[in-house]
Amino acid sequence: MTKASVGTVETKYFTFANSPEAFSLESKEKLGPVTLAYETYGTLAQDKSNAILILHALSGDAHAAGYHKGDEKPGWWDNMIGPGRAFDTEKYFVICSNVLGGCRGSTGPVSINPKTNKPFALDFPLITIGDMVAAQKALIDHLGIDKLLTVVGGSMGGMQALAWLVKYSDRIRSAIPIACALKHSPQQIAFDEVGRQAIMADPDWKSGNYYEGKSPDRGLAVARMLGHITYMSDISMAEKFGRHKKNNIQPFKFTADFEVEGYLHYRGDNFVKRFDANSYLYITKAMDNFDASKDKPLHEVLSGKPLKVLVIAFKSDWLYPAYQSKEIVKVCKHAGIGASFCEVDSTYGHDAFLLEIEEETHLISHFLKSVSQKRGKA
Question: What domains can you pick out in the chain, each with its CATH number?
Answer without folding.
Answer: 12-184+292-377 (3.40.50.1820), 188-285 (1.10.1740.110)
